[in-house]
Amino acid sequence: MKKISIKINSQAIICDEGKTIMQAARDHGVYLPDLCFHPDLSVKANCRICVVEVKGHNKLATACSTFVQDGLEISTDSERVKRSRNLNLELIFAEHIEKCPTCVWRLNCKLLELADRYKIEITRFKDRKGKRKVYKFANAVEIDGTQCIDCRNCLDACKQMQKINFLKLTGKGADQEIVPVSAGWRRNGKIDCIYCGQCAVHCPVGAAQEQTQWQLVEKVLRDNPPKSPLYKGGKILVAQFAPSIRVSIGEEFGAPYGKIVAGQVAAALKKLGFNYVFDVNFGADITTIVETEELKQRLKAGGALPMFTACCPAWVKYAEFYRPDLIPNLTTARSPQMHAAGLVKTYWAEAMKIDPKNITVVSIMPCTAKKYEAGRAELKVNGLLPVDYVITTRELAFMIKKNKIDFLKLKPEAADNPLGAASGAAAIYGGTGGVMKAALRELGNRRLRTVTVNGIGGIEEVLANLNDYDYVEVMACPDGCIGGGGQPIPTTAAIRKKRLSALHKIDAKSEVRKAHENQAAVKALEWLEGKGKLKEQVLFTKYRRRS
Amino acid sequence: MDIISKIEQAGLVGRGGAGFPVAKKWEAVKNAAGDKKYVVCNAAEGEPGVLKDDYILEHYADRLIDGIKIAIDFLSERRPTSTGRRTSGYLYLRHDYYKKFRKKLAALIKNSAIEIFVEPLSAGYIGGEESAVLNAIEGQRIEPRLKPPLPAVRGLWNRPTLINNAETFYNVSLAAAGGYNNKRFYTISGDCLNEGVYELADDWLIEKILRHTNNYPKFEFFLQAGGGASGEVLNAGQLARPVGGAGSIAVFSLAKHDFKKTVKNWLDFFIKESCGQCAPCREGVLRLREVLIAEKIDWNLFNELLDNLSDASLCALGASVSAPIRSLVNNVFQQVS
Lengths: 547, 337
Fold this sequence. Notes:
Radius of gyration of chain B: 20 Å
Largest sheet of chain B: 5 strands, mixed
Shape of chain A: globular
Largest interface: A-B, 33 and 31 residues
Largest sheet of chain A: 5 strands, mixed
Number of helices of chain A: 18
CATH class of the largest domain in chain A: Alpha Beta
Oligomer: heterodimer
Order of helices and strands of chain B: HHEHEHEHEHEEHEEEHHHHHH
Strand order of the largest sheet of chain B: 6-5-9-7-8
CATH superfamily of the largest domain in chain B: NADH-ubiquinone oxidoreductase 51kDa subunit
Strand order of the largest sheet of chain A: 2-1-5-3-4
Number of domains of chain A: 3
Number of strands of chain A: 17
Number of helices of chain B: 13
CATH class of the largest domain in chain B: Alpha Beta
Distance between the termini of chain B: 56 Å
Shape of chain B: globular
Helix content of chain A: 25-40%
Structural class of chain B: alpha/beta
CATH topology of the largest domain in chain B: Rossmann fold
Distance between the termini of chain A: 50 Å
Radius of gyration of chain A: 24 Å
């Protein structure tokens, strides 16, 4: 790469040709604000808050879209820049109805940060979007038009990244609005939301976000202060957290990307008032064992191949809606959160002598689609939904902050047993290729033709060549759950990479590397043996066409 | 003499409003890498008060089509023909012009690589911006693209694309035949007796044009020159200059037009026509109107919003919103501020 020299705020800088002003500035520690810019998406330059002054140019330039050239003299903080940048921020603020009291963004809101940094007048203009609609997609994701700043990131995430095209832009000028496809927005038979939440994790202002359940969880915690497990009649509160949470949630508290904080997550959940904290990694080992068994059966008996993983609920929704012909190919094994929670309300409840009706299970997931999965009626066990509430990584971080828990200073605690033990193979469920790898460890030397899809936008190629494979892992989000729709913001390719390598670190450090060597999991499965219908209910599921 | 030399000798500049040298644009497309290239003739005529494309289609459609063909030939030159045409053209036509001239145009483009693309009715003012034209043809949302890349490098379907105004192609045809004699089309409208399109020397001054066409007002007036939305406003003492832009002159009787109403009309137009991509235009024009119709105009904010439009808009149309308003204040209604 050719080196060129430029000046930013009178400081001489040598940088690579081909970089944008924003990249060059940030590489050299010069702050530049952004809202519509996201490294995962193509540059749109529509918020205009990264404007800079370039000597010799008539207009201001947007740093995100302007490439450096040799000799460029740039000012990021001239009076002219400040006036324009601040005004644009004020204009944008008037598009966003502040719903701070109930917003999970409240404590790390980009808009509020910028307002504070530049001391802008956030009420200079009257809010203009009070009458906009809120669109809810199942119980998973919502787009709140009253908060939208028209940056279009959600649109690009849905279209460019995921290739679902469920969102579209209608209207013109100030009347433009992000809406679901088809008038009246309900299903048009051809396109439907898969609840992946990539719109939410790419929204700079929380207009696209998860449908929160933290209020409900808070209420449960408030109404049921920690009780002894033997307490009669009260609810026992159980939290279980997904594999990928432990390498991402630290970011919300200022930890470096990829910091492993499993112990702090368990400790924080206890501090919030949960009686028991279980690790969904345990459930992942169950899933691996059950799913691998099924794969072996199919290979032996000539069942539907290739077999697809089905622990990603957004992928399951995709298959049910777009490719119902593939339903027989999905593994019938439930997902880890369902395996774990199903065992909580049966195996563990029996051991603890607790009426399962008195157990409330809250999952902490990197995912918005898991909220939808938790409500699927066919997953009931003995008439009860295994998971009562699902909150995202962001929601948990918000609750921790709200309760003024100093997360990074918490003394790490282990998850409770017996549903806390897990193999290294379970940890990597949180990233692309992990489910596959966990299964292959079970299969030993058997040679299989496998492929992994991460990011549903890339699935077409695999679906077009199904005969080439025996086993396919699909994760709807880029790089798997560590890039999930419920993960901390920002989530970018570079950040995902760091989270992913942290998962592999956990795996490498684990004493037990294979699912079936997790004695606690084996024991739980043994308990299910001979339990006929119950075993069926806890371990397996079915799918149905949804188009 | 090759076509580029002829264009250079004639000194042709783009007639869409920006006045970019034609030869430079053509060479840029020629030099851009790509096996497939496109030529687009922009006859959207989105600027209010400009009717020259209509006039050209009515009187010189053959010249216009000839100009497009010359461009296609120019970009196809020295390319193998056995593999089919490597350059094709679109005539991007305003909806009502299509209805009016379809038969004539169909005959003229027969057996050529030119196709007519009818501008969707909803395209509006922004639908005439050159990269919005490309979006329209591609079936994308009709709004300007972020530049760079310029259309010359990555235009229609990411191929190098030459896009010029209808009048420019007309001029190219004349220049190729040695018949270009430094004229351009002026559209005169508003409070005057002889509204219409006139083909006159391109260096005539506004006053001369008005007098020559018997349109010089006998009453107090101001006028907007260049374009009906983006043109600069001038008073009677400022007419010793050429028209510029897209060649329009709109005359306003001072008795009939007060400051607020005039600006409000313009802002209503921009609010309706803003594509909505960038904050300075989408939000700015809306707030400008708020400030304008308030009992007392907050001039600081008003000017700040105008500055922001010219400084930070995404496209040239957004940037040009401030020109008429600012010049109306400076040249006609100094007392209001």
